[in-house]
Amino acid sequence: MDQPAEAMISNPAVVMGLLAIILGVIFKTAHSQNRQWKKFYKYVPALLLCYFLPSLLNTFGVVDEKSAKSVYHVASRYLLPACLILLTISIDLKAIINLGPKALIMFLTGTIGIVIGGPLAILVMSAINPEVVGGHGPDAVWRGMTTIAGSWIGGGANQASMKEMFEVGGDIFSAMVTVDVIVANIWMAVLLLMAGNHKAIDAKTGADTTAIEDLKQRVEAYHAEHARLPTLNDYMTIIAIAFGITGFAHFCGDILAPYFDQFAWAQEYSLNSTFFWLIVISTTIGISLSFTRVRHIEAFGASKVASSFLYILVASIGLHMNVMAILDTPWFFVLGAIWMLTHAALMLIVAKAIKAPLFYMAVGSQANVGGAASAPVVASAFHPSLAPVGVLLAVLGYGVGTYMAYICGLIMQSVAP
């Protein structure tokens, strides 16, 4: 669907204001006690609206392409690395290990399912309809699929990372974002349905759920001990750490990218990309600081600040999505379905083999596919006190997502026709 020659809004500041209003309305209604709103959000995930509503501004020509790119540039170059830093700093590897080996096994199984699912989907589709997975240059299908890999191993932050690292074209990105959101939310709906029957399913599979009860008590005790109301000093500390490291990552990226640009092989691995180094350095420093006292900034809301950055990023990504694009390429839905079925099948097989509780399978899967935005939703479907566990595993997804999605992208590039 072509955008009109002249859009209604061409000022990036106005566009940013519209996105802020849209996000505010979504969150206000999503947390409303009104019965109609609660019923609405029972079937329509808030995250889906964060993508979908901004996309209407693009689809119907309300916002012009130049202003949308300006907003996305700010979100991807400044808010994205700051978001990754704050999320990875809060990783508590000791607490994750205490979840037990089965929880980590299911999480890593989910990651592996995404990494191999993408290339497998390309190979299967190559046999069914080779034209679907063809293309060259920025709009090559495999490039668009790297953004799904990023989204499904960590969330929206890694999705934006892959878009820039693999220089994904706007048209294929629009189609893949739509596939990503719809397929992922269908799978989340399946997980929530299973969560409602988890006792019967665990009883049938013979899973030992005693560790879950201990987990509930441990999580509640941790938050009761460490959580506190943030002060202005706390928020300024968070901002100083997030944007200070972001600035340092930009500084290093400006040096490393030109250096690697002299090597022909470096382009194949995105080593000559300033954005590549920005993301890798930000994530690596964040993970490194998780072993220090700096990680205690999570006690006064580092992940909440990061999530606010993330939702602005999600909305700016939505500005690039044309909801009519998928109508031209319905085969992309089949491609996404094959990918998700590979992930789901591997999760179910491993869960049954090790007799893992459904909770570990569901949260391990959603921590990959949905990230910090929706993993807590699935976790809380089992018990409200378990929501932080979803965040914990999802944050681990942010830590490994940049690397694993990148590897998945290289594999898809190698098998693409």
Main traits of this protein?
single chain; 417 residues; mainly alpha; 0% strand; globular
Outline the structure in words.
This protein has 417 residues and is mainly alpha-helical. It has helices spanning 12-30, 35-43, 46-59, 65-89, 93-98, 101-128, 141-152, 156-165, 170-195, 198-205, 210-226, 232-260, 274-289, 302-318, 325-328, 331-354, 358-369, 375-382, 387-415. It has one domain (94-302, 324-415). Helix 6 (101-128) packs across helix 17, helix 9 (170-195) packs parallel to helix 16 and helix 17 (358-369) packs antiparallel against helix 18 (375-382). The longest helix is centred in the middle third of the chain and has 29 residues, at 232-260.
Summed up:
This protein starts with 11 loop residues before the first helix and ends with a helix.
Topology:
Layout: H1 12-30, H2 35-43, H3 46-59, H4 65-89, H5 93-98, H6 101-128, H7 141-152, H8 156-165, H9 170-195, H10 198-205, H11 210-226, H12 232-260, H13 274-289, H14 302-318, H15 325-328, H16 331-354, H17 358-369, H18 375-382, H19 387-415
Helix pairs in contact: 1-3, 1-4, 1-14, 3-14, 4-12, 4-13, 4-14, 6-7, 6-16, 6-17, 6-19, 7-8, 7-9, 7-19, 8-19, 9-16, 9-17, 12-13, 13-19, 16-17, 17-18, 17-19, 18-19
